[in-house]
């Protein structure tokens, strides 16, 4: 059944576009007409030593792509298709793949290794291909080096593809033994050794049991450290990557090895090539990550029973580690500020220094200050920049008490460097450091203000002036202003920024018009800073914010005038639309928040809505996320008046709800449905059939990203609140969906933290839906329609209570639902409620909660239940 | 067709500490928009919940309009509160004819404003200067109606936020004074209510109240046999003796007649009063050894259990009763023996252990477990010694399966209780009966679940027990 595919595969890589196209079409046709024969032919091609390397490699790649895809639903389809394939064909394909592992052609071996792993990823969880690992491992010691290398590579990919629970401990032990032996310095062949270390990287997740055994762990760690000292750069790099991974996976097991690891990493940071040095720094960054997490968790709960104890590695290494990191700061690249993707030793070192500061707090300050003092005035820009960068890096972590006196001394120096330093790089870092100062040491919670009436004007003048500097410096100056404004968020009725408001807005708008505003995302920085200035402004400047409305509208209008755009221009236009709609969203939210300002704003509502609709019309297949978000704010500001825009807007709403691929768009749109419900109340009724159809479709789709489902449930509640008893006709669809989702989310046994978090958000959505429906029906003549659903709702409350893994938000929503049941159903639910666990134990627990909002909800619920029982 | 993607090795690039503001800022902005939306949803739901339409079946618009009003109402309410206080001020200042009626009218208006919604305009009332006026209205010799309305206003204020409750401090001496026998019972009850709210706020205010002598008059209010006044007093007392300082509890139990009143209420009172009294016994038994001893002597534990056995709505009392018992059982050996000897107790405990809600079972298990152990004597071996006859009796009555059930629960605290009891059975039952009993009740299987349990204590404990009692030698002698 095999077919000759060599020529097709070669043509598919031809330089001639039409030849390539034809070959691709033929391959596709072959695949669609006869999948088993197609896959078998490809595997035969891959295994055939007489075929050219190029066709073999492509055959393997197509085979691999026939087994896996990025999109979840597509992947699911491919897996199902493979599992349905005839067993004989599958076994022939597999034997071709295994045979290829001993090919003398490296590309063929490597490709086969990846395909074997993909097949294993599908079959091992199904308990198929049980002999695979055994056959890979048999005779591994007698194999010629190139086959041994391919075998190790296969094991590595296999560990990447397969989840640890699909491989039994016995096989895990065997894999690790082979891998670790291959890594050891006694292995003479470097390719084998490299393949083994890379395999270990993927196998670390399998090694839980082995890392708990002191002897096995000692052995593995010794071999990894040994490899980190290899003469071969690639081996060292791979070994350090293993160390980084071990740092986060097995932090609590590291104590006995930290002295050695410190020596090895210190040497690598100082002397090794960049790629290796970066990993050595990354090791310490990962250790910081772990300790920050542990210490945060420890501070969060006083019980201190978290499973991992902090070993304070960073604190212990501090005196030796900080000088090493400071040295790296002097190794800057000339143009790193212009390149957004840049990453080098200096950047990594500063980032690590920042993490160290967050880990140890005050202790870092005396270790860094001498470096700053020594270098900040040096003629070499590298030294000035490194000193400034060091300062900026340590501003998060140490206490304000420790930092404020230093900052008060440094501030004038920084302001003058920002205007006068001849080097752009230094100015960039200075502006960023000012931003960090304002981010962490300025705000209403600080005891000693950094910014005073005496220096406020000077600071603003310097920042506005820097906005005319080169794009990267201007962007950082915007950032500093952003945090400066943010610090005055809750300053009260009068803001120190009021006198400068107009000047600041003008300067930011000027930045957005710079010809080079596209560089380094300067325009984005300017608009987001403008947004923050507006958001944190006070009533005093409300008129000025109102005057900004027509200005931004005009900007948006101008971008819509352009004729036929190239795809590149279209993308830029989309970005600009995003910025302007985002800006309008913030302004609308600001002005819509109080009655006086809302009144002035409403004169623009029609025109703004018209602009948003035109922004939507620019895109054919999807809707603009930012415009959608802005419409949510507009709906709130307009209230029931928003109904007049619905006929035109509705189609975009529906389009957004249908957008499975860009799930964020879908999610934003779901939120906007809620905004519209609250704005229109029962005037939303005419659109509800369409909206509900779409929402229920979304809920039952397995293509939609799961994060959208909780907001959809909440949205059902929003609709029910808006239309009250008219929700009746949707009950028979919505309730079963809620019920089955409730059952799924009742238990979290064995789930990881992320899953528990998701489950809680799902529960919250479901409970909000119940609340909305119950409250929606309250005082209507149709409350009896809900009685049949009450037992299940109570059961859901009972079961999540017994589970004891609710977060505070769910707890509050849940106790509220109990009250809603009593409130809406009254005496009909009285006995039922009294007989449930939630009515007594859960309620009592909430009544004595330390969280004020839970207590408040519980008190209301208690009242509602009392009324229901006595009714 | 694309060539083979270089499945390069994982790159570890992390976000640099030095970055531009743009990306993060737009993300935050969007999150903020979502947060604002959530707040709006919450305030709408809250408004709906507070909205009560007297007669159902109005047109569908009514609740919506009312709901909308709540937001606007806030400022309106504040204004009304301020106006009411102003009116009270001028009424108090006015000495002319009908002055008293005007004061009562103004107080009533203020009380209504303060009762209007779930979020009454307390702050506005206080800012307008309500407190000195209310204190003035509590003056001795004022008419009952005026006292009642003023105390009612204070009750509402005391139910507010902590700092609002604290504003009551100047009023406390007079509120306490009106608890006395000379006051009419509605006035005394209203004052007790206000004081109960104050006591519930926190330890600091409880201490202020206690130092001003609130305990005795409140305790005396509990002595009569029935009535809402007794219930309110009991509730206020339970708030007052919450501790953590045990002094108030100890002082309370010493008050003449209080023990008698407690037993009487537990024996005869209606469900609601009994519940409040049960709460008092909870705090008494938890905080004061003296009180515990006296309660046990008066057979309060039996009364509570009797309540449980006969109550129509069991749930209401079970947690309190179970809690009291576990407090008592944790006490001295004499206490343990008292519980053990009372006929009604053990069967009911065992019944609860097998049938009650999970939390109650836990308390009951704790009680039973405690009945079987005593603190080690002089030789502090660090281990509790068994009260063997208690253990044998309880095991014979069939309590073991209940504990084994707890071992199987996901709650580690409960599982630990279960394992500890099992350890006692294995170690303590005479003639080596322990292991056989445990095996018969599937206890081995229950312990084996912990073989790989993530909780190290439990794992070691269970594995240790299995090894020690069911190791290689087990069963050889049979």
From TrEMBL, chain A:
Subcellular location: Cytoplasm; Nucleus
Residue ranges occupied by any Importin N-terminal domain in the UniProt entry: 23-103
Keyword Repeat: yes
Entry-linked Pfam families: HEAT_EZ, IBN_N, TPR_IMB1, TPR_IPO5
A GO CC term assigned to this protein in UniProt: cytoplasm
GO molecular function, one term: small GTPase binding
Keyword set, alphabetical order: Cytoplasm, Nucleus, Protein transport, Repeat, Transport
Gene Ontology biological process terms in this record: protein import into nucleus
InterPro entries: ARM-like, ARM-type_fold, IMB1_TNPO1-like_TPR, Importin-beta_N, Importin_beta, TPR_IPO4/5
Family: Belongs to the importin beta family. Importin beta-1 subfamily.
Listed name of the protein: Importin N-terminal domain-containing protein
Protein species of origin: Linum tenue
Lineage, broadest ranks: Eukaryota, Viridiplantae, Streptophyta, Embryophyta, Tracheophyta
From TrEMBL, chain B:
Presence of keyword Protein transport: yes
Gene Ontology BP terms: protein import into nucleus
Region called Disordered, residue ranges: 1-40
Pfam families: Arm
SUPFAM superfamilies cross-referenced by the UniProt entry: ARM repeat
Keywords: Protein transport, Repeat, Transport
InterPro entries from the UniProt entry: ARM-like, ARM-type_fold, Armadillo, Importin_alpha
Keyword Transport in annotation: yes
Coiled coil: none
Gene Ontology CC entries for this record: cytoplasm
A GO MF label: nuclear import signal receptor activity
Recorded family membership: Belongs to the importin alpha family.
Record protein name field: Importin subunit alpha
Source organism: Linum tenue
Record lineage: Eukaryota, Viridiplantae, Streptophyta, Embryophyta, Tracheophyta
């Amino acid at each position: 059944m095999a077919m000759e595919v060599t020529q097709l595969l070669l043509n598919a890589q031809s330089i001639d576009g039409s030849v390539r196209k034809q070959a691709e079409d033929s391959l596709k046709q072959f695949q669609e007409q006869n999948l088993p024969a197609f896959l078998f032919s490809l595997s035969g091609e891959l295994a055939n030593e007489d075929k050219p390397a190029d066709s073999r490699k492509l055959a393997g790649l197509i085979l691999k792509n026939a087994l896996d895809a990025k999109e979840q639903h597509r992947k699911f389809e491919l897996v199902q298709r493979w599992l349905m394939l005839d067993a004989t064909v599958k076994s022939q394909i597999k034997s071709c793949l295994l045979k290829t592992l001993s090919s003398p052609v490296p590309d063929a071996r490597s490709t086969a290794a990846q395909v074997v792993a993909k097949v294993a990823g599908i079959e091992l969880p199904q308990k198929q291909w049980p002999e695979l690992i055994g056959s890979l491992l048999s005779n591994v010691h007698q194999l010629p080096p190139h086959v041994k290398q391919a075998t190790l590579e296969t094991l590595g990919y296999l560990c990447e593809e397969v989840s640890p629970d699909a491989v039994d401990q016995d096989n895990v032990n065997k894999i690790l033994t082979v891998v670790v032996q291959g890594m050891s310095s006694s292995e003479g062949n470097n390719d084998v050794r490299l393949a083994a270390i890379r395999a270990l990287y993927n196998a670390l997740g399998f090694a839980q049991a082995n890392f708990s055994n002191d002897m096995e762990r000692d052995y593995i760690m010794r071999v990894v450290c040994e490899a980190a000292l290899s003469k071969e750069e690639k081996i060292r790099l791979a070994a350090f990557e293993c160390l980084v991974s071990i740092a986060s996976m097995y932090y609590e097991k590291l104590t006995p090895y930290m002295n050695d690891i410190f020596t090895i990493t210190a040497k690598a940071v100082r002397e090794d090539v960049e790629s290796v040095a970066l990993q050595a720094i990354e090791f310490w960054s990962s250790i910081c990550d772990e300790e920050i997490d542990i210490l945060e968790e420890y501070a969060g709960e006083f019980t201190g029973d978290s499973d991992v104890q902090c070993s304070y590695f960073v604190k212990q290494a501090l005196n030796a580690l900080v000088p090493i990191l400071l040295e790296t700061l002097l190794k800057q690249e000339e143009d790193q500020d212009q390149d957004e993707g840049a990453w080098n030793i200096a950047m990594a070192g500063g980032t690590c220094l920042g993490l160290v500061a967050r880990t140890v707090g005050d202790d870092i300050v005396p270790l860094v200050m001498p470096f700053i003092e020594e270098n900040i005035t040096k003629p070499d820009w590298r030294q000035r920049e490194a000193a400034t960068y060091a300062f900026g890096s340590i501003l998060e972590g140490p206490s304000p008490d420790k930092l404020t006196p230093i900052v008060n001394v440094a501030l004038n120096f920084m302001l003058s460097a920002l205007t006068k330093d001849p080097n752009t790089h230094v100015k960039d870092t200075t502006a960023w450091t000012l931003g960090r100062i304002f981010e962490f040491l300025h705000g209403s919670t600080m005891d000693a203000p950094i910014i005073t009436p005496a220096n406020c004007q000077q600071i603003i003048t310097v920042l506005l002036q820097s906005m005319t500097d080169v794009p990267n410096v201007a962007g950082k100056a915007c950032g500093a202003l952003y945090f400066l404004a943010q610090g005055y968020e809750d300053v009260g009725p009068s803001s120190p920024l009021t006198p400068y408001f107009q000047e600041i807005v003008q300067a930011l708008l000027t930045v957005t018009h710079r010809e080079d505003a596209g560089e380094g995302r300067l325009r984005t920085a300017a608009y987001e800073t403008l947004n923050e200035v507006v958001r944190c402004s006070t009533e005093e400047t409300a008129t000025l914010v109102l005057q900004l409305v027509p200005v931004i509208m005009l900007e948006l209008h101008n971008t819509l005038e352009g004729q036929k755009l190239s795809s590149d221009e279209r993308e830029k236009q989309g970005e600009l639309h995003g910025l302007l709609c985002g800006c309008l969203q913030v302004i609308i939210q600001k002005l819509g928040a109080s009655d006086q300002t809302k009144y002035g704003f409403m004169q623009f509502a029609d025109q703004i809505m018209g602009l948003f609709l035109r922004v939507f019309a620019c895109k054919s297949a999807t809707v603009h996320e930012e415009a959608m978000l802005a419409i949510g704010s507009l709906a709130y500001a307009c209230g029931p008046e928003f109904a007049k825009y619905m006929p035109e807007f509705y189609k975009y709403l529906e389009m957004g709800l249908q957008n499975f691929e860009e799930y964020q768009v879908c999610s934003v749109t779901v939120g906007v449905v809620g905004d519209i419900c609250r704005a229109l109340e029962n005037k939303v009724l005419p659109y509800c059939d369409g909206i509900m159809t779409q929402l229920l479709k979304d809920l039952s789709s397995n293509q939609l990203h799961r994060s959208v489902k909780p907001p959809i449930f909440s949205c059902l509640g929003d609709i029910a609140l808006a239309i009250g008893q008219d929700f009746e006709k949707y009950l028979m669809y919505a309730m079963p969906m809620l019920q089955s989702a409730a059952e799924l989310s009742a238990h979290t046994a064995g789930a990881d933290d992320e899953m528990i978090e998701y489950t809680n958000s799902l529960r919250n959505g479901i409970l909000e839906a119940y609340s909305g429906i119950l409250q929606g029906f309250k005082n209507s003549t149709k409350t009896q329609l809900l009685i049949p659903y009450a037992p299940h709702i109570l059961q859901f409350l009972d079961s999540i209570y017994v589970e004891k893994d609710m977060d505070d938000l769910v707890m509050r929503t849940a106790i509220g639902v109990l009250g809603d049941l009593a409130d809406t159903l009254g005496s009909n639910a009285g006995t039922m409620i009294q007989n449930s666990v939630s009515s007594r134990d859960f309620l009592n627990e909430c009544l004595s909660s330390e969280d004020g909002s839970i207590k408040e909800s519980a008190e209301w619920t208690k009242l509602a239940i009392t009324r229901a029982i006595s009714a | 067709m694309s060539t083979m993607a270089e499945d390069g090795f994982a790159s570890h690039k992390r976000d640099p500490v030095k970055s531009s503001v743009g990306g993060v800022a737009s993300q935050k902005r969007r999150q903020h928009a979502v947060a604002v939306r959530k707040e709006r949803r919450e305030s709408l739901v809250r408004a709906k919940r507070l909205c009560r339409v007297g007669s159902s079946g109005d047109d569908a618009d009514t609740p919506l309009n009312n709901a909308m009003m709540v937001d606007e109402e806030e400022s309106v309410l504040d204004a009304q509160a301020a106006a009411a206080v102003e009116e009270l001020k001028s009424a108090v200042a006015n000495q002319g004819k009908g002055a008293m009626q005007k004061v009562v009218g103004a107080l009533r208006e203020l009380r209504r404003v303060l009762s209007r919604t779930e979020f009454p305009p307390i702050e506005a009332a206080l800012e307008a200067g309500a407190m000195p006026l209310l204190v003035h209205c509590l003056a001795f010799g004022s008419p009952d109606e005026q006292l009642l309305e003023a105390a009612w206003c204070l009750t509402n204020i005391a139910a507010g936020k902590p700092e609002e409750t604290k504003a009551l401090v100047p009023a406390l001496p007079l509120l306490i004074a009106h608890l006395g026998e000379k006051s009419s019972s509605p006035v005394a009850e209203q004052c007790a209510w206000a004081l109960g709210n104050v006591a519930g706020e926190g330890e600091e205010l409880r201490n202020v109240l206690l130092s001003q002598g609130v305990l005795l008059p409140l305790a005396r209010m509990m002595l009569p046999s029935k009535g809402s006044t007794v219930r309110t007093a009991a509730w206020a007392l339970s708030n007052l003796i919450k501790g953590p300082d045990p002094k108030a509890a100890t002082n309370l139990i010493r008050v003449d007649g209080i023990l008698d009143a407690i037993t009487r209420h537990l024996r005869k009172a209606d469900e609601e009063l009994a519940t409040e009294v049960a709460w008092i016994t909870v705090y008494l038994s938890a905080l004061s050894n003296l009180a515990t001893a006296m309660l046990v002597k008066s057979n309060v534990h039996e009364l509570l259990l009797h309540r449980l056995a006969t109550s129509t709505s069991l749930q209401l009392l079970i947690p309190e009763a179970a809690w009291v018992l576990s407090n008592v059982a944790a006490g001295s050996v004499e206490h343990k023996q008292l519980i053990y000897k009372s006929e009604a107790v053990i069967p009911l405990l065992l019944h609860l252990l097998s049938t009650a809600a999970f939390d109650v079972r836990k308390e009951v298990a704790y009680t039973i477990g405690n009945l079987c152990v005593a603190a080690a004597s002089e030789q502090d071996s660090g281990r509790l010694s068994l009260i063997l006859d208690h253990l044998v009796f309880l095991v014979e009555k069939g309590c073991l399966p209940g504990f084994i059930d707890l071992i199987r629960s996901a709650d580690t605290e409960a599982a630990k209780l279960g394992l500890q009891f099992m350890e006692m059975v294995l170690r303590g039952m005479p003639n080596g009966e322990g292991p056989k009993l445990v095996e018969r009740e599937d206890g081995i299987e229950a312990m084996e679940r912990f073989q790989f349990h993530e909780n190290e204590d439990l794992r070691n404990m269970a594995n240790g027990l299995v090894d020690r009692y069911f190791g290689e030698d087990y069963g050889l002698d049979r």
